[in-house]
Specification:
Blueprint (H helix, E strand, L loop, with lengths): L1 H9 L3 E9 L3 H8 L7 E9 L3 E9 L5 H10 L4 E6 L2 E7 L5 E3 L2 E2 L6 H4 L5 E7 L2 E6 L5 E3 L4 E2 L1
Antiparallel strand pairs: 1-3, 1-4, 2-3, 4-5, 6-8, 7-11, 8-9, 9-10
Helix pairs in contact: 2-3
This protein binds zinc ion (ZN).
Zinc ion binds next to loops.
Length: about 150
């Protein structure tokens, strides 16, 4: 019994394992992905990592990510790796990549922005802020750091 319980946490037959998530971002990423299936999701927070100190990890059974999903993950966990699991084995593994633009995910922090007043889908282009990621709102042109923006 104990072994079976362990197995269900450590291995999945089919689905996706998102690993190397910056510690503290795991729950946010689960919310961002808006996983709507009734399939099991395992969330590991504050796991020990030799590379990162502490990391978060998410396992989603029977779910495979789209390019838009991995772009969202990259915003908050740029070092995350995605493992595609089939028949308990890693079929492929890749790193998330920052997109050029993010639409309909984040709310503009500028309270005077038109997207806060009218029902307009938000859109940000990603720019480099001296080594950090900045997001420029396409409507009000204000540049925000990702941590200043809240999810829609
Ligand atoms: Zn704006």
């Amino acid at each position: 019994m104990k072994e079976t319980a362990m197995l269900s946490v450590t291995a999945i037959r089919m689905g996706t394992v998102i690993d190397h998530i910056e510690n503290g971002q795991g729950m946010r990423i689960v919310r961002l992905l808006k996983i709507q299936s009734s399939d099991p999701v395992t969330i590991g927070l504050n796991l020990k990592s030799s590379l990162m100190g502490l990391k978060d990890l998410i396992k989603v059974e029977n779910v495979f990510l789209t390019k838009a999903d991995t772009a969202k993950i990259a915003l908050f966990a740029p070092n995350a790796t995605v493992n595609v699991i089939k028949d308990f084995a890693i079929e492929s593994k890749y790193r998330v990549e920052l997109p050029d633009q993010v639409d309909g995910v984040l709310c503009c922090a500028n309270t005077l922005c038109i997207t806060r007043i009218e029902k307009i889908r938000t859109s940000f282009s990603l720019i480099d802020l001296r080594g950090r990621t900045g997001l420029r709102c396409r409507f009000c042109e204000k540049v925000h750091r990702q941590e200043e923006l809240i999810d829609l």
